[in-house]
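Input structure tokens:
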């Protein structure tokens, strides 16, 4: 049933003397959410940056839709349908929602460079409705929205291109309250339901990870040390794994 979108094979990456990743193997399929957890410095963001074409791996390879691929840049990755929601979101706060949704892909009347505002508003409303994001008005400035709503718009923008096949989210729930986080988790669950894209989610809240993700991988010191289906693990097992590492490191 599952159709693999991205497979990571034996990927390694160093920064000078720091071995950020060694021999990483993972796989994610259409309609699936893979949760990636691990302490600060474990290598989670480095892995996401390799998948998004920002860093090149030192060793190993990526297999995208069954074909080995060398991602040359973020633009190259995006052209293949690999979209990333970065932590800083790249939103322009004093522009309205509908223009943020069209950032760098504004619709213009050719040959005159007038923005097709009405059409962009209509499409923005359609895109937000399609994935169940409740924003009162697409003409509201993004700066007036809550963190969760901004994050939701960033996710909508990533999948809005219509071409998204792999969505990467690096800690979208950090610094967000339970209600706000719930908004994003419901949105991810909706995208999963649609079944056409694969999602990798980095998050710290294990109960949210267990709830929304199909699988959980734990990254420790640049290696995946744990890989289980969410329904075969639990928050207490994940906490125990991470605390066991903590006890070893601190000698307590
Ligand atoms: N651009 C970089 N230059 C040098 N070291 C880096 C760079 N990016 C990450 N690192 C190092 O690689 C390791 C993994 O970092 P990172 O992937 O950001 O971890 P995480 O996202 O799990 O907190 C850390 O030791 C970090 O200091
Ligand atoms: Mg990180």
């Amino acid at each position: 049933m599952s159709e693999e979108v991205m497979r990571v094979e034996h990927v390694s990456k160093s920064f000078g003397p720091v071995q950020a990743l060694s021999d990483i193997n993972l796989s994610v399929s259409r309609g699936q959410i893979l949760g990636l957890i691990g302490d600060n410095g474990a290598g989670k963001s480095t892995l996401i940056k390799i998948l998004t074409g920002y860093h090149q791996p030192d060793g190993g390879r990526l297999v995208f839709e069954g074909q080995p691929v060398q991602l040359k840049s973020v633009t190259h990755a995006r052209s293949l349908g690999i979209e990333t929601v970065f932590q800083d979101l790249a939103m322009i706060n004093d522009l309205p929602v509908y223009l943020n949704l069209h950032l760098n892909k504004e619709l213009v009347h050719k040959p005159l460079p007038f923005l097709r505002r009405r059409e962009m508003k209509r499409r923005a409303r359609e895109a937000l409705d399609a994935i169940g994001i409740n924003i009162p008005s697409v003409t509201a400035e993004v700066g007036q929205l809550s963190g969760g709503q901004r994050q939701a718009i960033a996710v909508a923008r990533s999948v809005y291109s219509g071409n998204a096949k792999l969505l990467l989210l690096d800690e979208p729930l950090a610094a967000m309250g339970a209600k706000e986080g719930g908004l994003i988790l419901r949105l991810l669950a909706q995208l999963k339901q649609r079944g056409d894209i694969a999602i990798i989610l980095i998050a710290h809240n294990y109960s949210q990870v267990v709830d929304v993700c199909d699988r959980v991988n734990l990254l420790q010191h640049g290696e995946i040390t744990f890989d289980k289906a969410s329904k075969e693990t639990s928050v207490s097992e994940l906490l125990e794994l991470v605390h066991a590492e903590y006890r070893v490191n601190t000698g307590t």
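Residues 15, 18, 20, 38, 40-46 surround adenosine-5'-diphosphate (ligand 1) (CB under 6 Å). The two ends are 45 Å apart (CA to CA).
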